[in-house]
């Protein structure tokens, strides 16, 4: 089943039903006390109909609220396996995807043609998990540190007192944040008013990391080049369009796909060897800078096509949850502070906007298995079989997604966090999953042993052993052996006493 059709109800004829599936007596006439009297509380359909309607709206996105999207496929025509092992970028691979384009500052009903940066969010449903590239139609951004983002957005959206947008606030922020100059130059130019979503390029904007099969890492920037050609509105044309069609860009994309004129973008990348980052003439992780294409030319990767309109705008576009934190093996982050802040902010806002189980919604659900110990929470739809373990580490034989049933975090070092990024740089800031630093005499059992031997008296030790044994009631003989060993490690006397009392 295609992503666009996941969740689609079969079309039924016949009576409308209540949400419990039972037939509705009337959609048009409510139950009253006599023909002229009041409504009644147990007209359940009336109550349910109003109550559901009352809750139809959810918070709009805090930014990029006005947008539109479509489904399609990514096609890889070139071989970039020397740079990344990511399955979706291997030659010949076709990956289903969703794209959403948006303005930034406007609300849901605002005109598509306002001068603004355009969002360029791509969601790839890969066999290794969902991969999102959440970029813009510009290669840079207004700021270079995520801590400034709420301030930046406050200066661009409506003032809470007046409810009005303010050029005063916008320019005040920009001129006090000189790092904005590159992006404001793009914004005030043609890219600030593209003629719809089909006629603009897209950028991942940030520097990301690609990692190949041999474990070699590269810094990468994404470029998406429209095959429709660039086009833009002048201020006069855009103002006229605002009055004529608020939804110009949404309509343009939708109608193009309806008539079979499927828009395409070429996918290209710039690649920088990790070793060159330190010495490059600009900080390659600074989001207010581009990399010169003379230094790092565009390398073709493939193209994508949008060819399927959403079947339900709310379910598939409004509820779509894009996030830079959605990575897959072979692709990582970088030390870009903006990117790092975003990795937190998107799933955080989505838990608020859509609920904690937003990843279970069809449009956000991966097409590969999801093996997770996360469970419960509002809107739980999927669940694991009852014989599956529900925590880690666990000793459930032959089960457990991640666990070998033996190890825990004590003394375990996994090494570089290659799923985030590797950057063995001169500053010693490479990410790692290393054991907690242990001092020479530390181990997990020294202090509980001292507690048992030197703090407790004989009576307290005896009560401790008894309490332990009663708490072990019902466990398997195999697990009991592990428990005896555990207490023997704490204190040999205690281990022996627990064994004695348990048997
Ligand atoms: C630290 C800086 C940033 C923060 C904290 C931030 C935060 C957010 C939040 C909270 C949303 C709403 C997400 C949702 O409700 O699903 C959003 C949407 C979006 N942001 Fe950012 N953002 C930042 C920078 C950027 C940058 C640099 C870009 C582009 C390069 C960008 C592109 C987008 C796009 C395209 C969307 C709309 C995604 C969609 O279509 O659903 N943002 N951002």
UniProtKB/TrEMBL annotation:
Recorded superkingdom: Bacteria
One Pfam family from the record: Catalase
Record key words, sorted: Heme, Hydrogen peroxide, Iron, Metal-binding, Oxidoreductase, Peroxidase
Residues engaged in binding heme: 346
A GO biological-process term: response to hydrogen peroxide
Protein name: Catalase
Catalytic activity, EC: 1.11.1.6
Any GO CC annotation of this UniProt entry: cytoplasm
Gene name linked to the record: katA
Cofactor dependency: heme
Region span, Disordered: 1-23, 394-413
Region forming the signal peptide: none
Family: Belongs to the catalase family.
Top-rank EC class of the record's enzyme: oxidoreductase
Residue spans of biased composition, Polar residues class: 10-23
Keyword check for Metal-binding: yes
GO MF annotation terms: catalase activity; heme binding; metal ion binding
Catalytic site positions: 64, 136
InterPro entries in UniProt: Catalase, Catalase_AS, Catalase_clade1/3, Catalase_core, Catalase_immune_responsive, Catalase_sf
Domain Catalase core: 17-400
């Amino acid at each position: 089943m295609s992503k666009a059709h996941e969740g689609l109800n079969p079309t039924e004829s016949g009576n409308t039903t209540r949400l419990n599936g039972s037939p509705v007596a009337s959609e048009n006439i409510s139950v009253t006390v006599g023909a002229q009297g009041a409504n009644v509380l147990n007209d359940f359909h009336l109550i349910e109909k109003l109550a559901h309607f009352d809750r139809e709206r959810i918070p709009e996105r805090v930014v990029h609220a006005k947008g539109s999207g479509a489904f399609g496929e990514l096609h890889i025509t070139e071989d970039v396996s020397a740079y990344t092992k990511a399955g979706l970028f291997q030659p010949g691979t076709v990956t289903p995807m969703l794209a959403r384009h948006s303005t930034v500052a406007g609300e849901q009903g605002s005109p598509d043609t306002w001068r603004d940066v355009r969002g360029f969010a791509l969601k790839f449903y890969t066999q290794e998990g969902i991969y999102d590239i959440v970029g813009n139609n510009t290669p840079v951004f207004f700021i270079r540190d995520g801590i400034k983002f709420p301030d930046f957005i406050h200066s661009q959206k409506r003032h809470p007192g007046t409810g009005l947008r303010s050029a005063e606030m916008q320019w005040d922020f920009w001129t006090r944040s000189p790092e904005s100059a590159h992006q404001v130059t793009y914004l005030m130019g043609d890219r600030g008013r593209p003629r719809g979503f089909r006629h603009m390029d897209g950028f991942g904007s940030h520097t990301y990391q690609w990692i190949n099969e041999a474990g070699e890492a590269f810094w990468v920037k994404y470029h998406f080049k429209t095959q429709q050609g660039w086009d833009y509105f002048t201020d006069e044309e855009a103002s006229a369009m605002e009055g004529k069609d608020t939804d110009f860009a949404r309509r343009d994309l939708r109608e193009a796909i309806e008539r079979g004129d499927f828009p395409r973008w070429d996918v290209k990348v710039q690649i920088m060897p990790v070793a060159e980052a330190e010495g490059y003439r600009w900080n390659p992780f600074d989001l207010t800078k581009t990399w010169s294409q003379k230094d790092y030319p565009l390398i073709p990767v493939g193209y994508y096509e949008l060819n399927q309109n959403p079947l339900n705008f709310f379910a598939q576009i409004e509820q779509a949850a894009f996030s830079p934190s959605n990575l897959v093996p072979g692709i990582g982050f970088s030390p870009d502070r903006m990117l790092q802040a975003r990795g937190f902010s998107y799933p955080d806002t989505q838990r608020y906007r859509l609920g904690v189980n937003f990843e279970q919604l069809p449009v956000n659900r991966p097409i590969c298995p999801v093996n997770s110990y996360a469970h419960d929470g509002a809107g739980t739809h999927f669940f694991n079989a009852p014989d599956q373990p529900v925590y880690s580490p666990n000793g459930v034989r032959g089960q457990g997604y991640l666990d070998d049933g033996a190890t825990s975090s004590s003394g375990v070092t996994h090494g570089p966090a290659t799923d985030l990024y590797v950057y063995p740089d001169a500053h010693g800031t490479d990410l790692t999953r290393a054991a907690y630093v242990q001092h020479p005499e530390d181990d997990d059992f020294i202090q509980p042993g001292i507690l048992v031997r030197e703090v407790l008296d004989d009576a307290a030790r005896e009560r401790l052993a008894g309490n332990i044994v009663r708490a072990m009631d019902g466990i398997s003989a195999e697990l009991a052996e592990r428990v005896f060993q555990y207490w023997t490690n704490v204190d040999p006397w205690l281990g022996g006493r627990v064994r004695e009392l348990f048997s």
